[in-house]
Amino acid sequence: MIPTITAFERSPDRGRGLARDMRVRWALEEVGQPYDVRLLSFSEMKEAAHRMLHPFGQIPTYEEGDLVLFESGAIVFHIAKQHTGLLPDDANARARAITWMFAALSTVEPPIVERGMAMLVERDKAWHEERLPILEDRVRVRLGELSNRLGDADWLDDAFSAGDLLMVTVLRRLNGSGILEKYTNLSAYVARGEARPAYKRAFDDQLAVFTGKPPTG
Amino acid sequence: MIPTITAFERSPDRGRGLARDMRVRWALEEVGQPYDVRLLSFSEMKEAAHRMLHPFGQIPTYEEGDLVLFESGAIVFHIAKQHTGLLPDDANARARAITWMFAALSTVEPPIVERGMAMLVERDKAWHEERLPILEDRVRVRLGELSNRLGDADWLDDAFSAGDLLMVTVLRRLNGSGILEKYTNLSAYVARGEARPAYKRAFDDQLAVFTGKPPTG
């Protein structure tokens, strides 16, 4: 059965692939699972019909027969569990990969999102200039710790996993910020993720929604 | 094999059970798994020896033979997977319970933690008084959505699960704030979690670390 996911009708990041459907698209491409996409306007996301699927009125959702899921992390985990390729078979390695999924979303993403939100909604506040460096320091603490752990490895725990998939999408929010670029191993790590064929297919598909042109290739 | 978790040597919340080891203690109590606790000072948490276990220098960690995990969400998931009682057997119900685990940590917790951090570290800032209501509104949006979804049910998706366990620990951060109390079904939901015998045992054990007295009963 082909699952259906939801995504923004109009990309708020103009096709940069930072919305959370990108994670789900990437995971589906990694495992070779075709999928349908239903596009939603910002007002449709907040309507009762969509809130039946997603109580917080966001994207993405995932529908597969009777099953309805929300939360990109949970959807990626569901895909990884159903297919091979995103989580190792060895029980301990699998538990560690799942740990990186939670670390990406619970420990690394929040300060990055806070900085992004401040730049979006607090730009005109009197305190913005004083507060932004505090937020950026919080981001740097996490990046420094992550950089130390990654070292010169390709991925966070041996082979590429759903943990790396989520971590790369979290770090990508900092592309062009000048912050991520100071950690050369993390920059290379993000580039390594973005170079994966499955990533590129997912990226092109979400970009095609924005440009209105079918993906090339 | 009895696992070992780490916790704060000195409870920053004076035994209110808001540190993230509480989640892991509660999960272990729900499934009846005994465990050892190793206490860490704030400086020990940031030392290289602990960072080998936890790259972000935090608690809790979980050690079980060769396996080392961090991230409370991942540890609770690991416990839920190894034992019965925290995740339903039915595949779809299980995927939905896991969705609530991610929702608790990725969608509901971040604005609650941001508010808590502002009250802790921004109290003396010129902008605190203007910014706090903005943060509280962000919390209220999520609580309103969660309250609508919960309705008059006991738990988020039929039977109590690891999703409820995490959500209750997230919402407990608002106990006494006057914010949570406006959502009577959410207050009752938190109280329902706190009334579980496993919760009480976990709470008493973490409190005993703070008071230095062995738990009663």
The number of distinct β-strands of chain A equals: 4
CATH architecture of the largest domain in chain A: Up-down Bundle
| Quaternary organisation of the protein chains | homodimer
> Which pair of chains forms the biggest interface, and how many residues does each contribute?
A-B, 42 and 42 residues
Main sheet overview of chain A = 4 strands, mixed
Unreliably modeled segments of chain A = none
Helical content of chain A, roughly?
55-70%
- The radius of gyration over CA of chain A amounts to 17 Å
What does this structure look like?
2 copies of one chain form a homodimer. Chain A is an alpha+beta fold. Chain A has 2 domains: 4-85 and 198-211, 3-Layer(aba) Sandwich (Glutaredoxin), CATH 3.40.30; 91-196, Glutathione S-transferase Yfyf (Class Pi), Chain A, domain 2 (Up-down Bundle), CATH 1.20.1050. Chain A has 9 helices and 4 strands. Chain A has helices at 21-31, 42-45, 48-53, 72-82, 91-121, 128-150, 162-172, 184-194, 197-211, and strands at 4-8, 36-40, 61-64, 67-70. Chain A has a 4-stranded mixed β-sheet with strand order 2-1-3-4. The longest helix of chain A is centred in the middle third of the chain and has 31 residues, at 91-121. The first copy, chain A, is globular. The two termini of chain A are 25 Å apart. At the A-B interface, strand 4, helix 4, helix 5 and helix 6 of A face strand 4, helix 4, helix 5 and helix 6 of B.
Q: What is shown here, in short?
A:
The structure is a homodimer of 217-residue chains. By secondary structure, chain A is α+β, with helices and mostly antiparallel strands.
